[in-house]
Amino acid sequence: MFRRRGLARLAAGEGGGFGGGGGGARGRLGQVLTLVLMREDPVLCHHLADLGVQPGLYACTWVETAFTAGPRGLPQAVRAAAWDAWLATGRPAVLLQVAVAIIIISRHLLLHMEEGETIQYLTNLSRSEETLGKDAVLSCALNIDIEDDVMMKLI
Question: Which residue intervals define the domain Rab-GAP TBC in the entry (predicted)?
Fold first, then answer.
C-alpha cells in the first residue's frame, strides 16, 4: 500500500522523503524522471520510492548541471559521452535519458541497498566507473523513449 501511495505522491509532485518533489521546475523534473523510470523499470522505481529516495535528491542535480556537478559527478568518460550525445542530437531529452539510464544500469546494485547506501551511491557517481561504462550508459539511454508530451511537463 505504501508503494502505491508513495508513487502517487511522487507523480503528483508532493514532498516527502529525501529530495522531495516540491513545486517549480525541480519538482516537475522529478515527476518526469519518476514517470519515465516507472515505465522503464517499475520494480526499481517502486524500490526507490519505498526507500523514500526521490529523483529530486540526485537526478535533478545531474540534469540541471548537465552532469558537471563537481568531483561527485559522473566519471569523466560518461560525462563526455552524455555531452556528445546531447550536442549531436540537439535534444535536451538526452540528458533525461542518460539520467534514467544511469539508474537502470545501476539496478543490480540499487535493489540490494538500503536508503543510506542508495543515497551515497547516487550522489557520488564518480567512483562508479566500473559500473557506469560510457558505452553501456549511452546504449541504454538511446533506447529510452521520452515522448514530447512528457517533455512538455517540464515547461
Answer: 31-108
> What predicted TM-score, i.e. pTM, was given to this entire model?
0.79
CB contact set of 105 (below 8 Å; sequence gap of 6+): 131, 132, 136, 137, 140
pLDDT digits (tens, 9 = 90+) for 103-122: 999 999 999 999 999 998 88
**What phi, psi does 12 have (nearest 5°)?**
-85, -5
Distance CA 27, CA 24 (A): 5
**Euclidean distance between CA atoms 25 and 155, whole angstroms:** 8
Question: What is the homologous superfamily of the domain 2-154 according to CATH?
Answer: Ypt/Rab-GAP domain of gyp1p, domain 3 (1.10.472.80)
Q: Which cell goes with 134? A: 560510457
